[in-house]
Amino acid sequence: MPYIAPLKDMLFDIEHLAGIDQVARLPSFEDAGLDTTRAVLEECARFNQDVVAPLNVAGDRQPSWFQDGAVTTTPGFKQAFAQFAAGGWQGLQHPPAYGGQGLPKTVGAACAEMLHAANMSLALCPMLSEAAIEALLMAGSDALKATYLEKLVTGQWTGTMNLTEPQAGSDLALIRTRAEPQPDGSYKVFGTKIFITYGEHDMAPNIVHLVLARVAGAPPGVKGISLFLVPKFLVNADSSLGARNDVQCVSIEHKLGIKASPTAVLQYGDGMAGSAGPGAVGYLVGHENRGLETMFIMMNSARYAVGVQGIAIAERAYQHAVAYARDRVQGRPVDGSADASAPIIHHPDVKRMLMTMRAHTEGCRAMASVAATAHDAAHRHPDADTRQQNLALYEFLVPLVKGYSTEMSVEVASLGVQVHGGMGYIEETGAAQYLRDARILTIYEGTTAIQANDLVSRKTVRDGGQVARAIAAQVMATEAELAGQGGDDAQAVLQSLKAAREAYAKVVDFVVGQASTLPGAVFAGSVPYLLATGKLVAGWQLARSLLVAQRLLATCQDGPFMQAKTVTARFYAEHILNAVPAVAQSIVAGAASVTALPAEAF
Amino acid sequence: MPYIAPLKDMLFDIEHLAGIDQVARLPSFEDAGLDTTRAVLEECARFNQDVVAPLNVAGDRQPSWFQDGAVTTTPGFKQAFAQFAAGGWQGLQHPPAYGGQGLPKTVGAACAEMLHAANMSLALCPMLSEAAIEALLMAGSDALKATYLEKLVTGQWTGTMNLTEPQAGSDLALIRTRAEPQPDGSYKVFGTKIFITYGEHDMAPNIVHLVLARVAGAPPGVKGISLFLVPKFLVNADSSLGARNDVQCVSIEHKLGIKASPTAVLQYGDGMAGSAGPGAVGYLVGHENRGLETMFIMMNSARYAVGVQGIAIAERAYQHAVAYARDRVQGRPVDGSADASAPIIHHPDVKRMLMTMRAHTEGCRAMASVAATAHDAAHRHPDADTRQQNLALYEFLVPLVKGYSTEMSVEVASLGVQVHGGMGYIEETGAAQYLRDARILTIYEGTTAIQANDLVSRKTVRDGGQVARAIAAQVMATEAELAGQGGDDAQAVLQSLKAAREAYAKVVDFVVGQASTLPGAVFAGSVPYLLATGKLVAGWQLARSLLVAQRLLATCQDGPFMQAKTVTARFYAEHILNAVPAVAQSIVAGAASVTALPAEAF
Predict the structure, then answer these.
(1) What number is the ipTM of this complex?
(2) Cβ within 8 Å, pair A599-B563
(3) Is A253 one of the annotated active-site residues of the chain?
(4) CATH number of the structural domain spanning residue B229
(5) Where is the Acyl-CoA dehydrogenase/oxidase N-terminal domain positioned along the sequence (chains A, B) (predicted)?
(6) What is the domain range of residue A107?
(7) Are strands B226-231 and B207-215 parallel, antiparallel or unpaired?
(8) Which of A15, A21, A558, B325 is least surrounded, with the fewest CB atoms within 10 Å of its CB?
(9) CB distance A439–B453 less than 8 Å?
């Protein structure tokens, strides 16, 4: 099944919701206006449609393969990644000084969606490099930057994030990997890391691991964790590769999905034969015991990217389902509009499923696009207050982009299977792969519960609900526009949006008011709070889409597209956003029944 | 992971909600009182826990295997099925005249849940035999009954249902398989059937296929379909096996889950070497051109059974998740109740997930138990009116048991993966298998949309909403009891139940009122109508559970269990049932946005 990048929808969001014209007014983004954006996206679409997407099924059927410490990736992956690097895609958002193109995240996020939609398993490799690049840009010493950044930015080498250990997943306080200071200022790292995405592979000659570990004597818990760069091969002064470092892949996991993406168990410092060990040579990134701060920056970047993966796989599943629904002839339309069996896309329930898939995908895409622009303004706006406001907004949106887009992606991919009927359950159809692939998204880079904890604690309670209420105020402004718009569609959206926003405001009051006195009650509703907030923000962006579409319809630009945008916004309001008040009531009044059962009663 | 049958919950439902005492007053069920039921369930639990459950993982890792027309099942399956047959479990509900035990469905449904929870892939074989038995009991000639029934009832042979063809899935009007009358009264069958569960295997020496086909000259569409019995081996007058019939397994499918259950493509009448063909010898079951009537009886039985599969796999996923949540230590409780990292079952969001899994499972189990009793009364009650009322109730509940329990099972199994975090995505953990296995349930034996069409057309509109409104009236009676009960728990449940029932009544008015004038609008909401009805009925049964539990608590019988029953009912009301009013609003007012987009706009 080919993949067709949804350029029209992406550009609609970037132009009208995210506001690329504003982005292009930011220092150093002057060339990143709509025309450049369109050109970049079109080029990106061609590459991903033609080169990357055709390898998606192969990755599932011939997964990465482990033998004797080495991982062989799916045939074709190495070549596609080389083309990706040669095309400059890894450096899209990174400084020209290191070989990047210096484009805004507003553009980069759309490009990332295409890559993940084309082939999520392959795309994970550059996604992890991205996180490593961000960490080094922010906290790396000049020496580390000089040695590693250009190699990563140009896709010659790749990066990884090493957090998880068998006993330390969501709970990083339990990390045991240790780092011993050496006389030359480097460290020797010892320990076992699991679930390391592309921790070993054959797509690049060197792999740059960013590793959380404890220095001897560090404080217990998360305040004693430091971040280290540990290369697979040590690097000589002339940038050539030196000795093999003492980090070894001992196995890869057999997973439900993303099978082509090798998930490695890495052993550090075990005295691997032929290596520079015992002890893996590592270099401190930032300050001792403050590794988590840097890691959080990497994680914010990676969490946003995982949210984009959700949107990407939802889009791919949607396209697959639409194609099948157009093709499969089965059953007469219930409204008697045809005498013979018709393509199932004409059946109301199939339309309902496809509309649900479409509305979720477009809503989350719009939310992510707006978040990306906040990121750009947070980093580049000349005014400090504006930077700060945008940073706060971006950081509020990250757990939503991650948590909400991924939860919806599992639902969308599952609906994609359902549209296919019995054929959806047969692996060769391909619909099931999206569900299996999507199922990791609500788990890695912090489960939905971890995102919800972040949304509650750091993003809502810490500022007394300021950002949350500012969003509600902006939603009210959109309501006022809808009220002035007239027409059934705008009124239906207004009614649902207003009810959701009012219910949401009560939840924010509850969360802010009770977090310190009744934390158990607040956290009993943390995930529902995240989901309700995600629904509100995505629904709000679609409401804005409707206003834009109605305005442009009046001037006759691309009528069918604008009409579809209107219908999709209304569908979202009437069938998805309308769930918010009941969820809000569950959160505010229903905590007791969540936690009442003692552990032994389950 | 061992499976422990939830005997206490099953017996609670059977005693207090289904009312086994009433069942035991029905003719021929006099011996099936609570004590017998308990004894049968305990024996059934031992067998499934000890013999069947241990083969579940093996079935996933070493699926059934096809070569040269033959299917080899997972090692151990053949022996386990032989023990199942020897234990008399296949005949539990069938007439003693054919070797059965003549027990009510109220008991049989609980036993079926255990078998499916223990090993859904294995359990599919006897489930399909069950459907074949029902068809023969109802419509088979004396000769067919004499030749085949005892063999099937005693589990010596197995049965299949052959409906689907490549072009005919949900739409049986498109069936092309043809049957040619022979001078001796038999037929010769020609055609290709796909998705035939246990269509070929090595667990029994003969397989009895029930096959939909057209006789030459039959009317087009579903009114020209007849049902035939086609044995794998012809049967001699002395019951020994004769010639190989001309039906051949040409392949089995590579599926997302239930991998041990072979899903066969069967070729009828192709002149298989060594067979009695060309033409597969078949025998008419019932009357020509009325095969669909019989098939619907089989399907009702099979659909109920698939709903039970949903409950079963949800229970198994729940048990797996609870065990992991007790064991996995990660993170401090947010309420500060402990200073160190604790088992994750103490975290509010993990409790929320486990409570969701538990409440769905118990709610659907209660609904299925009550439906089974309606089936028993429909068939055995001495009073014709009572039989008719119970039949109407049972037939209304079948699409709910099938459609709702299976939709919830996918959600529950997915939550089970989520509770496991990263480990849930690793296949060796076993949590992912439940999700993969469960994902077929909303598809086969009629997708959720097909169930919803049935609920709307045949079960709601045809009788002008009579059964639906009778259920609403019974819910009101439960509300009155809750109002009289007092206490926070009963009041919380009352509030949610009342709101759901009132919203439901409006939906019924809409469905009944608009089905002929606005069928497109009604069917745009058919699946939401099914899901809302399922939530209401399951929530109502849990409300009844709460009343029973409060009464028994007062007399001090098993306090912790009754307390848990109360909390679970309240959780369901506050976090699941409370969604009904918004869904009702979507159905009544939101149809336009479901169907507005033309097919080409997707």
Answers:
(1) 0.97
(2) no
(3) no
(4) 2.40.110.20
(5) 37-156
(6) 7-64+73-139
(7) antiparallel
(8) A21
(9) no
